[in-house]
Design a protein that fits this description.
Elements (H helix, E strand, L loop, with lengths): L2 H7 L2 H14 L1 H13 L4 E2 H8 L3 H9 L17 E6 L2 E6 L1 H13 L1
Antiparallel strand pairs: 1-3, 2-3
């Protein structure tokens, strides 16, 4: 079963709550999501995310994919369906999903 099917079976308010909590718990996660929102619908390399968010490469990878104890896999931007990988030749690019864009737009409106 893919992540989207799992999300359809779970209360949407619960999913949004988990995502909002996850973004508020990590400034790095929030900075990366905001950067991808700002360049949306374009995709970008990990190195560009590192450069534009002034974040360590290991933190960027951890936030996007999850990394052992520091960045939980179930709270990674990919697991939360906020970011998706895009394969381009030999390099992997990342972009904000449509769902991620909606979440970030709704968070901006609530400020």
């Amino acid at each position: 079963m893919d992540r989207m099917q799992d999300r359809k079976e779970i209360d949407p308010k619960l999913v949004r709550g988990l995502i909002t909590r996850s973004l508020h718990r990590s400034n790095v996660r929030k900075k990366i999501a905001k950067y991808l929102f700002d360049i949306s619908p374009n995709s970008t390399y990990t190195s560009d995310i590192v450069y534009h968010t002034h974040t360590a490469p290991i933190s960027v990878i951890g936030v996007i994919h999850g990394l052992d104890f520091r960045y939980r896999k179930n709270e990674s931007l990919i697991s939360l369906n906020i970011v998706e990988p895009v394969n381009s030749s030999d390099m992997r690019l990342y972009r904000l999903t449509d769902f991620g864009k909606k979440i970030l737009e709704s968070m901006k409106e609530k400020r």
